[in-house]
Design brief:
The complex is a heterodimer of chains A (407) and B (263). Chain A is α/β, with parallel strands linked by helices. Chain A has two domains: 189 residues, Periplasmic binding protein-like II (D-Maltodextrin-Binding Protein, domain 2), CATH 3.40.190; 140 residues, 3-Layer(aba) Sandwich (D-Maltodextrin-Binding Protein, domain 2). Chain A has 17 helices and nine strands. With 263 residues, chain B is mainly α. Chain B has a domain of 181 residues: MetI-like fold (Orthogonal Bundle). Helix content of chain B is 80%, strand content 0%. Chain B contains eleven helices and no strands. The longest helix of chain B has 33 residues. The two termini of chain B are 38 Å apart. The chains are: A alpha/beta (407), B mainly alpha (263). Chains A and B meet through strand 1, strand 2, helix 9 and helix 10 of A and helix 2, helix 3, helix 5 and helix 10 of B.
Chain lengths: 407, 263
């Protein structure tokens, strides 16, 4: 009897192993490729820890044709995905540097990829397991941040431009230049990024310097131009830009192209312009940490992200630009022609961030603090207020004491 | 006199408005058709239906609840035992131990978070459920001690001796006399632990791992793009649930009180 059970279970296992084709049927307009054996890890109880930006993958949102990338990956491979999110590159860096976090797939931005490569935190990928890499657009297959191309596979890319409100900005004014953010006509109607690198970067570009300059004189010049600009800036913000621009509370704001589309959908008065001085082009790329437990399963996951169907669904959900060339052809025409996918010359004028030396980062941070603190209420206000408080409390006590003595 | 009364009323109303208007704005926004927080484009229940399907938010909610319950149960047991031990110490050592146990309450969360992270790293532990729960236990225990201690002080010491006179052994005294006397303190301590654990962001931020992301961290990670209105829907549900629990508990309390008065 025991033997029979064993035989039956073996038979069942065999049946599971030889029927990989059955699991591939997607039921969507594009099929999954059979570039790799998706069932390699089925039944082995493999768990994959994926660490990605928040709101940066297609999930089941309850609509009829929703597509859940992680659930689909689990379905066709039998690998369990544990998905978690981070908000900044620095947060990701800290988690990985600390060790003991066991991530298998992480998605840092370009400059963080190069920093992590130089610190030996990433593992070279085995591209035999990622045949879909060939589907990545040629211009994204080689990069400055990963010179050997051995560590990363692009996931999304995008660029920064100026979002402007056509009802508030004069038609005659040129929005295709960073100069417009310094135009006093729009005093109190300009928003800026609330982080040192992006904001000082814009000032550097406006003056014709590189985003990645390490020249202290250039950086200081940019910072002083930002101090000049400060009186006409309404606020330094990040995602509040959505509300302010949609609600028409500001006229001009630099932000990402993929998010500009979201705002333009909600407020048709908005437009998007990429300054001709050049702008920041960023790439977020999938990598495997050096201490990953399941590098092969991670490569399978990265290969899955590069599937045409998956990349297309992700691009539709997230709204940023996909570097997967085939997925791009499946997008609807309106998206293909939108500001998310600018012309080649715009991309050529763009510049990616690279990791800066420590001294420059420190300089940026201290100048940023200086920018934020200038022009704030007079430095005397706090001491005067404190003095007032102390006098009042002493006065009250003296008064009470006198009253007590009298009574 | 009447004038003063209306002034009190206005003042109270203002305080409550200050406390509750943000929550009502959030609840209203959870029904807003647009993703925007400032423009109202129409009523919808979409965010609620999207929430039910959102694996990321729901699994982190589940993580939050698991961690809160596990940590609170552990902290309650530890804290109660500690409180009883401290209560039976001599005055000087009791004072010292109480002060030491209160220190973590005053310690800035970020210091606690970083030091716990360094400790776990030093012990070569893998970041995940275990580290997260241990961290939460460590900051919940002082709250339990703080809540149980006054109940112990209120308790009549003679009760224990009387029970022993009547033939109870140590364990029976503890179970039948001490525990019922301090039970309200234990329950408050437990509830406070649950609240603080669900609330916590800073300490969790330093101690979570690949498998144990809590709700607060998930919401924080959305800030690069935009916090999705599903979070509004979830917050609205949490608020209503808490409100319902409070109402039920209070009504039960009032009823019990009335019964006791009648007796």
């Amino acid at each position: 009897m025991k033997k029979l059970t064993l035989f039956c279970s073996l038979l069942l296992l065999l049946a599971l192993l030889v029927s990989p084709a059955a699991a591939l049927e997607s039921g969507y307009e594009i099929d999954y490729s059979d570039s790799v054996d998706w069932n390699r890890f089925r039944g082995q109880n493999v768990t994959l820890n994926v660490y990605n930006w928040g709101e940066y993958i297609s999930v089941d949102d309850g609509t009829e044709d929703a597509y859940d990338v992680n659930a689909e990956f689990e379905r066709i491979t039998g690998i369990q995905v544990v998905y978690s999110n981070f908000a900044t590159n620095e947060e990701l860096y800290a988690k990985l540097k600390m060790g003991g976090s066991q991530y298998d797939v992480v998605i840092p931005s370009d400059y963080m990829v190069s920093r992590m490569i130089s610190e030996g935190m990433l593992r070279p990928l085995n591209f035999d397991n990622i045949p879909n890499f060939a589907r990545i657009d040629e211009q994204f297959r080689t990069s400055e941040y990963d010179p050997t191309g051995a560590y990363s596979v692009p996931y999304f890319w995008g660029l920064v431009g100026i979002i402007y409100n056509t009802t508030l900005v004069d038609e005659d004014d040129d929005v295709f230049t960073w100069d417009i953010l310094w135009n006093e006509k729009y005093a109190n109607n300009i928003l800026m990024f609330s982080n040192s690198r992006d904001t000082i970067g814009i000032a550097l570009k406006r003056l014709g310097y590189s985003y990645n300059t390490t020249d202290e004189r250039e950086i200081r010049e940019a910072a002083s131009s930002l101090i000049e600009q400060k009186p006409i800036v309404q606020a330094y913000v990040m995602d509040e830009i959505f509300d302010k621009m949609i609600g028409g509370e500001a006229a001009l704001a630099p932000y990402y192209a993929g998010d500009a589309i979201v705002m333009m959908n909600d407020n048709p008065d908005l437009g998007f312009a990429v300054p001709r001085e050049g702008t920041n082009i960023f790439v977020d790329a999938a990598c495997i940490p050096a201490d990953a437990k399941n590098p092969e399963a991670a490569e399978l996951y990265i290969n899955f992200l590069c599937e045409t169907l998956v990349a297309k669904r992700n691009a539709e959900y997230v709204g940023y630009a996909t570097p997967q060339a085939e997925a791009f052809t499946y997008l609807d025409e309106e998206t293909q022609n939108s500001v998310t996918y600018p012309d080649a010359d715009v991309i050529a004028a763009g510049e990616a961030y690279i990791a800066l030396p420590q001294a420059t980062t420190t300089l940026l941070d201290s100048l940023w603090t200086e920018i934020l603190s200038t022009g704030e209420a007079s430095p005397w206000i706090t001491p005067i207020f404190m003095g007032g408080c102390i006098t009042a409390s002493v006065g009250i006590n003296v008064y009470k004491y006198k009253k007590k003595m009298r009574g | 006199m009447k004038k003063r009364f209306s002034f009190t009323k206005i003042y109270t109303a203002l305080v409550f408005a200050f406390l509750y208007i943000p929550i009502f704005v959030l609840i209203a926004n959870s029904f807003n058709a647009s993703k925007s927080r400032t423009v109202w484009t129409g009523f919808t229940l979409d965010w609620y239906s999207k929430l039910i399907h959102n694996e990321t938010i729901l699994s982190s909610l589940l993580n939050t609840l698991i961690v809160a319950l596990a940590a609170s149960v552990a902290a309650t047991i530890l804290g109660t035992a500690a409180a009883i031990g401290i209560y039976n110490m001599r005055t000087l050592s009791r004072r010292i131990v109480m002060n030491v146990s209160n220190l973590p309450l005053l310690n800035p969360e970020i210091v606690t978070g970083v030091s716990l992270m360094l400790l776990f790293k030093f012990m070569q532990m893998e970041f995940g459920y275990v580290t997260l729960i241990l961290a939460h236990v460590s900051f919940c225990v002082p709250y339990v001690i703080l809540n149980v201690m006054p109940k112990l002080r209120q308790m009549d010491r003679n009760l224990c001796e009387a029970a022993q006179d009547l033939g109870c052994n140590q364990w029976q005294v503890f179970r039948k006399v001490v525990i019922p006397e301090i039970l309200p303190g234990i329950i408050t301590g437990f509830l406070m632990s649950v609240t603080y654990s669900i609330d916590d962001f800073v300490i969790s931020y330093f101690t979570y791992g690949a498998t144990s992301q809590t709700l607060s961290i998930t919401i924080y990670s959305m800030t690069r793009r935009k916090v999705s209105p599903e979070v509004n829907a979830l917050s609205a549900i949490i608020f209503v649930v808490v409100l319902a629990v409070l109402l039920v508990v209070n009504i039960a309390d009032i009823r019990r009180h009335k019964k006791e008065v009648r007796r």
